């Protein structure tokens, strides 16, 4: 019987008992913003965080990410480096210069080797880095590290502070989202733009 309980605890049940407690160590309902031009990465990261009881905000480009961060004041931002129009380094600089957003912890993400190397050379104040492809364990390890270090603290919010609604996915569409975030093929060889 103990073996069955162990397997059930590892795999979880169909009713989500496995995630009754947030895996990240954060209280439920932390606002976490995912900024990536890939809808797949936004969906995968959003699913992982949503299953942990977090409220997920999503932006597909740099300018809308800056606007959303100023308006919503998320508790944490996952920010892709390689994006068209305005890359993640430019977004990071803008967020760090703004008094409203400068203290929000930011985890940079990229599947581009050049961008990864450049991150280590040009750390503009990011709190951490996560390389694509990444899985659930990597995401929650980053969150746990920021929480344990005291860098990530969930702000208390009023009832009048709702999370913006996003387009709903059907249950089958949500179930089809993979658990591993792979970089988009077009990003693998593309050098970061406008990062100087």
Description:
The chain is α/β, with parallel strands linked by helices and 196 residues long. It has a domain at 30-154 and 179-187: Rossmann fold (3-Layer(aba) Sandwich), CATH 3.40.50.2300. The protein contains 8 helices and 7 strands; from the N terminus they run H-E-H-E-H-E-H-E-H-E-E-H-H-E-H. The chain has helices spanning 2-11, 39-51, 62-72, 88-97, 113-121, 136-148, 171-175, 185-188, and strands at residues 31-35, 55-59, 76-80, 106-110, 128-131, 134-135, 180-181. The strands form 2 sheets. The protein has a 5-stranded parallel beta sheet, with helices on both faces. The chain has a two-stranded antiparallel ribbon with strand order 6-7. Strand 4, helix 5 and strand 5 form a beta-alpha-beta unit. Helix 3 runs parallel beside helix 4. It is globular and about 35 Å long. The model is unreliable at 6-21 and 187-196 (pLDDT under 50).
Alpha-beta classification: alpha/beta
Query: Residue share in helices?
Result: 25-40%
Q: Which CATH-level-2 architecture of the domain at 30-154 and 179-187?
A: 3-Layer(aba) Sandwich
Largest beta sheet: strand ordering: 2-1-3-4-5
CATH class of the domain at 30-154 and 179-187: Alpha Beta
Number of helices: 8
H/E element sequence: HEHEHEHEHEEHHEH
Strand count: 7
- CATH-assigned homologous superfamily of the domain at 30-154 and 179-187: Response regulator
CATH structural fold name of the domain at 30-154 and 179-187: Rossmann fold
Q: Low-confidence spans: pLDDT under 50, at least 5 residues?
A: 6-21, 187-196
Strand content: 5-15%
Mean pLDDT reading = 76
CA-atom Rg in angstroms: 17 Å
Largest sheet: 5 strands, parallel
N-to-C CA distance: 60 Å
Shape: globular
